[in-house]
């Protein structure tokens, strides 16, 4: 492979996958998303690696670096935060790599929505409460299809994981209230899993806007919404003594 699209994980350097860590250690060229990736993860990189921060680069400049590396028989790690498949802007890169006949592979990572759920100690898929997780964002400079607007997703009463929207928290709450009640639990997790920097804010749709503003959280935060956030006494059928399945007979 010439290019590895690599998920760096949510922030904690130890939450990168073993495969990802090995690729970073061996890569001669690394292009990382500097506006989001915890730079401590670059400690895995070889001292001889050429490292580029894509925060100030255009798509064409990124591909130019890749082409230059491939021309010198070197391979490239394209380091994205979380998992590249979620809001990673990798499709446009893959399209240009296909046009250049440059091979690539995607190496998954731990998404920030999973790190946020871990931070608030929440199971997103509790039977009879929510068996659906919706990953979305509020429309901003990047448009959202009309049928997928946040206010339309609320009718499902699913567990919501909202990316890239905390700076518009008032509008988030306004759209959520079209389908959820004021006492619906909501959590905002800033820099989920980042050592010493993680901040967890728990509230309801009635309180969260003021809480977020008071905490000064403007970016790098995940918003979790749903009744799964407040349950602590639920028991599933899976481990119930009277529930029989292929690995266990029901108690008599």
The total beta strand count reads: 10
CATH architecture of the largest domain: 2-Layer Sandwich
Question: What is CATH's topology name of the largest domain?
Answer: Methyltransferase, Cobalt-precorrin-4 Transmethylase, Domain 2
Question: What low-confidence regions span 5 or more consecutive residues with pLDDT below 50?
Answer: none
Characterize the largest beta sheet: strand count, sense, and whether it forms a barrel: 5 strands, parallel
Q: Strand order of the main beta sheet, please? A: 3-2-4-1-5
Beta content comes to 15-25%
CATH class of the largest domain: Alpha Beta
CATH H-tier superfamily of the largest domain: Tetrapyrrole methylase, C-terminal domain
Report the end-to-end length measured between terminal Cα atoms.
Answer: 57 Å
Number of helices: 7
Which outline best applies? elongated
Residue share in helices?
10-25%
Order of helices and strands: EHEEHEHEHEHEHEEHE
Indicate how many domains the architecture comprises.
2
